[in-house]
Design goal:
alpha+beta, two-stranded antiparallel sheet
């Protein structure tokens, strides 16, 4: 019995996520060797819905970051992208530099199983791949998140012919290419997708002894064709090399994530220190402002007291001066009456 999937059970997944659609039951996340089944196991053709205003489909019923774009399926699992021409793989590792930009532009809300660090990003915006993959990737993909939304290409037709291939009818890798060539005439528009198909063809060609339809193998030297054990050993070495490359990439990505996490923590600490310093400065400024306000209020109060005292003195002064004025007026009046009394006497004496 051929083992097709090496799966890691996630018993808590069912409790944390909504139940999958009827056509996509028993979805599990797995890890295996490159070109067999890496990332996602989907036992039945999934229900795909278009992402509004994007030429991309997503699978709302799957507890996985599962998309379809330009003729290929794309999954994001364990911080890596994989592609396949069939809904259940085999999956092929896609380096960050070769993932199509329209896949990267899909907003965060359409990732059904987002990594924890996605929670800090806006749901209506694409993930911040530049912050995740580092400045070297961002320098090579400058402007990837800016595009003319009026010139978005139409989505590719869905390969619905694959619905009939479920369970034991799911084709082997050797038959997948031929079936796709016969039943899916769409040619990818995106150069990155065409390159992914070429990678898939080359990977499968190295695993087959004879050429297959639509993917002829390069001519082999006669001596090499007469030595099957050596050819098998070479394929085994190639598989081991791919596994080692995948392991190195995973290790490199883990190191980059750790470094980015350390840098992010350092930035957060610096921001926290700056925030504390700014808060202290604000508190000092507020304290100084309150003290100046209190001093100003005290000065205004003292000035008001001085004005009130002066006004009171002004009101009291006329009352004190009134008796003196009255006495002076009476003296003046007496002096004026005195000549009047003296005048008749003088007249009388003269007569």
């Amino acid at each position: 019995m051929r083992v097709r999937h090496l799966l890691l059970a996630l018993p808590l997944l069912a409790g944390l996520l909504p139940p999958p659609a009827a056509a996509a039951v028993d979805v599990s996340v797995g890890v295996s060797v490159p070109g067999v089944q890496i990332g996602i196991h989907v036992p039945a053709y999934p229900e795909l819905q278009p992402v509004p205003a994007y030429p991309v489909y997503y699978a709302p019923g799957l507890p996985a970051n599962y998309f379809f774009y330009d003729g290929l399926y794309w999954v994001y699992v364990n911080d890596s992208w994989y592609s396949s021409s069939w809904y259940d793989g085999p999956w092929y590792l896609a380096e960050p530099a070769v993932v199509p930009v329209y896949i990267l532009r899909v907003p965060v809300r359409y990732y059904r199983l987002p990594p924890p660090y996605f929670s800090a990003w806006a749901p209506a915006e694409p993930p911040r791949w530049g912050a995740h993959w580092g400045p070297s990737w961002e320098a090579r993909h400058r402007g990837w998140d800016q595009w003319d939304r009026r010139a978005v290409p139409p989505p590719a037709p869905l390969p619905v012919y694959q619905r009939q291939y479920t369970g034991d009818r799911y084709p082997s890798r050797e038959r997948q290419h031929a079936i796709r060539e016969q039943q899916y005439r769409f040619q990818p528009r995106d150069a990155a997708v065409r390159e992914r198909l070429a990678v898939e063809t080359r990977q499968e060609a190295r695993r087959n002894d004879s050429p297959r339809a639509g993917a002829p193998l390069p001519p082999r030297p006669q001596a090499q064709a007469q030595q099957p054990p050596q050819r098998d050993a070479r394929r085994q070495q190639e598989d081991q090399g791919e596994q080692q490359q995948h392991a190195r990439q995973q290790q490199r990505q883990a190191q980059e994530r750790q470094q980015q996490m350390q840098q992010r923590q350092a930035r957060e600490q610096q921001a926290q220190v700056r925030q504390q310093q700014e808060q202290q400065v604000r508190q000092q400024q507020e304290q100084q402002a309150r003290q100046a306000q209190r001093q100003q209020q005290e000065q205004m109060r003292q000035a008001q007291q001085h004005r009130d005292q002066h006004a009171r003195q002004e009101r009291e002064r006329p009352a004190q001066q009134q008796p003196q004025q009255e006495q002076a007026e009476r003296r003046v009046q007496r002096q004026q009456r005195q000549p009047e009394r003296d005048s008749p006497r003088e007249g009388h004496n003269g007569g």
